[in-house]
Amino acid sequence: MTVLKYFFLLCGCVLISSCEEVIDLDVPSSEPRLVIEASLNWFEGTSGNSQEILLSLTAPYFDAAITPATGAEVKVFYSSGDVVLFEEIADTGRYRTDQFIPEIGANYILQIQYLGEIYEASEVMQSVSPIDFVMHEQTGGFSGDEIEIKAFYTDPIGLGNAYLFEFVEYNPDDLTIGVYEDQFIDGNQTFAYFADINIALGNQITINNYGLSKQAYDYLFLLSLQSSNPGGGPFSTQPATVRGNCINTTNPDNYPFGYFRLSQAHSVAYTIE
Amino acid sequence: MKIVSLTRVGVLFILIGISTDAMSQIKHTISGTVTDVKSNETLIGVDVYLPELQKGTITNSYGFFSITIEEGVYDLTVQFLGYTSQSIPVQLDKNISLTIQLEEDTEQLEAVVITADKETNSIRSPQMSVNSLSSSTIKQIPAVLGEPDLVKAITFLPGVTNAGEGSSGFNVRGGSVDQNLILLDEAILYNSSHLFGLFSVFNPDAIKDLKLFKGGIPARYGGRLSSVLDIYQKDGNSKSHQFNGGIGLVSSKLLAEGPLKENLGSYLFAGRGTYAHLFLPLADNKNVAYFYDLNTKLSYQLGEKDNLLASGYFGRDVLSLEDSFRNVYGNAVFNLRWNHLFSEKLFSNLSLIYSDYYYGLRLDLIEFDWKSGIQNFNLKYDFKHYISNDLTLQFGLNSIYHSFNPGIIEPSTPDSSINYEELTKKFAFENALYLEASKNITEKLSINAGLRWSHFTRLGQTELNVYANGQAVLFNDVFQIYQKATPIGLQHYKKSDVLARFNNFEPRLSASYLINDLSSVKLSYNRMSQYLHLLSNTSSPTPLDVWTPSGPFIKPQLLDQYAIGYARQTVDALYSFEVEGYYKSIKNRIDYIDGANLVANNAIEQEILNGRARAYGFEVLVKKNQGRWNGWLAYTYSKSEQQTPGRNNLETGINDGKWYRTAYDKTHDFSAIGQFKYNKKWTFNTNFVVQTGQPVNYPNAQYEYNGLTIANYGERNSFRLPTYHRLDLSAILTPKKNINREWQGEWIFGIYNVYGRKNAVSIAFRDNYETGDNEAVKTSLFGMVPSVSYNFKF
Asked: What is the ipTM of this complex?
């Protein structure tokens, strides 16, 4: 739950009589693995037919760029047995289609063939609660001098919902995510929280809300724990190899990273004024 | 008249077994208490012995001793570090009761000469793996921000370390922080640190005696696996009113003690508080981080055989950030004790204790208020029977009723989006009986053998989850990850129902063999069990971590420790040398599934797995006990690791079921503590530490997902932070005008981390906000930190 994250963030602030220094290190490297970013989002007010799947490879930690995984065959099967093919754009590792048919509550199967191996995943498209309204406060954040943004939504009671919020900034482009589940707020109107020292009056940000299954929530929660984690030090949890819902049916040891997610989504463009 | 030949025969008969009074030699008992002449404070661990017989004992935790020997005329020698020794002629023709008053030794410049035929008790005693620190030593060791810190002081002893700066608690011989039994006047404390380990909860001014058992733990202690930190507060000066205090850059303290009734009763009140938050360098942040604590003690001597003591401790840490966050936590303890002498050979202590640990968190940001805590009621009855000079028996019982509140979550404002939730309260009953015998089997061989029987009952609670096959954690074969099982039902119980029962016999054995007057070899074995566990999946505990009892899903932790050691001292007892090796193996060590969320979790059983742990190493300690220069060098080589294999062949376990280092595993740990009394005005202290860096995780790959750069990690804890080393200095100035003056003051100047090494507390991996490139960032806490404080007493 985000309580933990807030607390750790705080501890970072309290212990700021500390000093940070960028250092040079040799880190180990491992064999490249396939990374599947298959997030099929159906934004409200659109048909949801245009979808894109990104395939890439893992790289050594200090490398500047990520290698796309090109030449794969990407298909999504509907529960009826029909299939939609995703075509690659040049050699970019981006595979797209304009023919996807989204249906909330329906089950979909992803199948990827890459370098002679077959990868599969199965997920159900999740609904989302739309963003009711957005507000901001100028003296917010942990330190009281950041602009904080609250995006309000109402959680339906008793369904075990979870949400992914994206806060997209422009110039410079930056993305912050937050995942929420309804354990403490079931059935209530609540908000997703975002604060950043770099946003200012007059800026525009885009707020996206995606519905998540329980498994997708667990995956994204673990991922967000890892990316905001100091490696070592008193408050770090043990980092883990985060496994998603995709498996390699040809060679189980060569499992992929990433996740196959289908979400209904809602987007709001907000200008801070 | 000395009955020399009969004494020899008496020794022969004693060799056979338990000596009885049916012998023809008449025996009498010398018993009594040793106190400080200025304050009547009882003195713990004083050597009381008879040089002619080469026999003696040491005073117990209440200053009491008892020696039973044949009739005769003897010189009773009483000796204690820091005090002038006394030799008291005794004509033993009937039982004698003495109150011996020792005077503090103010002549500290010359080395104290100790007679050659004395064997200090520590060489002969079968007790090994124990270190004592006096309050004055603790106050001399330079510490960060000038605040003397008992917990930091013990980390300079061999075998004791911590998980780094900013981490709370301490680790003994590779054990985790919840495996230390911390006792303050016989009451259990749950948290030994204030403000993330920056300070300890113990006020050194209020402390009389401290012993840390790292192994060879006697049967009278139980409930935690790795160590016992047994601390006694001062009783209070029953002769005159005294005040003691200190003003420092970040904290201040004041202690008042005095007689309630002259020579019979005394009081002691000590308070301490910090204003450290005013110095946090971020001038534009309204952070608040402070603590305060209060120690109280009342004592009253009801009669020659009875003594009543009441002690209390209350401490709170407050952390808050603007109005967005407020965290309050701390221990509170109250106990009543009654010392009663059933005879001059049988000493007893009855304690009634209430202990409470509270933590509360309010997040105004999301309008969330959390309260959590653990309470216990404890009854202890301990007896020490000084049967004969060569045999002492200790026995007793310990009974604790525990009540756990894992958390009450409340909305903090009327229109908060948080729902009220109360995590199920848990209850348990922990009982133990023990019997311990200390026997000098021959002139050279002494043993301490004991057995503790412990019993734990997990009582009913309002709701308990029921799972298919009793499995709360499932392994998903397809994704090769552990997942939480969904309960198939809920069962309701009354408080008088029993959810689980555990029984453990804990044998304890230690022995010493005297090679000669100055050296001995020691061995020990102990089995310990632990029924309460601190659930924490971070490297170091946070105030949100919950203590949880054993039960249907959590088995008690069990430990076996084997240790062997050699102790030697020089003829004049000026130098002492100890080397010890140990091996520990622990069953039922709790481990957590990846991403386990332990906060506000009503079904913790879904996040934990059972594993095991082991630790081994050797420790070397060289001390110079007295003189103008004194101090010690300590070196520890150790290894501490854990393993959580899969529950069957199909499961991977944690870290692929391989052994991995614990977060506080430090291969080499060297400390040097020195004190130099330059003259009557100036004393200098120094510490130097060098330690292997803590285990840390390095990524072995990166990838992009959802616009984020994700680091991937391999095996746990396989890399290390850079080597940690640091030098601290302090100087104590005692102005000349102090002598013969009511108001005594002293100035303490200190520098922590003299050469300002930026020791790494953590290494984090992240992408740079501006360039987007990945980088490794080292965080360090303290550069060079000077401090000054003024201590006074009147």
From this structure: 0.89
